[in-house]
Design goal:
With 169 residues, the chain is α+β, with helices and mostly antiparallel strands. It has one domain. The chain is 25% helix and 26% strand. It has five helices and five strands. Strands 1-2-3-4-5 form a five-stranded antiparallel sheet. Strand 3 and strand 4 form a beta hairpin. The longest helix is centred in the first third of the chain and has 15 residues. The radius of gyration is 20 Å and the shape is globular. The N and C termini lie far apart (48 Å).
Length: 169
Amino acid sequence: MRIFVLACAGLMAACSQPAAPASDPMGPMPVVAGLYDSGPLSTDAEYLSVWFTEEMANAIAANAAGPEDARIDWDYRSWAIDSEVENIRYAVGQHAEPGHAEISTRFSYPGLPGGMILTWDMCVRADGQWRIANVTAIDVGDETSPSSGEEASLRPALGLDPIPPETCV
């Protein structure tokens, strides 16, 4: 009888706890890998919100609908006009703050012998789903050409504050 009472008390305590948000057990990497595999770029904010925070998705959509001379005319997955990349490699890093992570992609393509490193700043929403809050890029030097050493970021190119907001939506 005592075991039955303890089991019931344990069950009630477990049921009264708030449910943890659903989360991808693979962490943030499937979001970035899926974006690379998603085909031609879309400028639809709703479609982009599968990958990006609402702020980023709306800014990309607004940029694409804006004046032609102010539009981003390159693929943010490759940081070039041509989206085809070769030898892509992924690495996962962690931010010091919980709910944030970095995914790095390194790849090469013709015309840039050393390739590029893109860092995808990720945040987790209240529902446990990861989204891209920023993308930064830097070219990689090799024996024939040195790196520029200059990092470029998608947020300022879209007219957003360089630092993503604290809340991930």
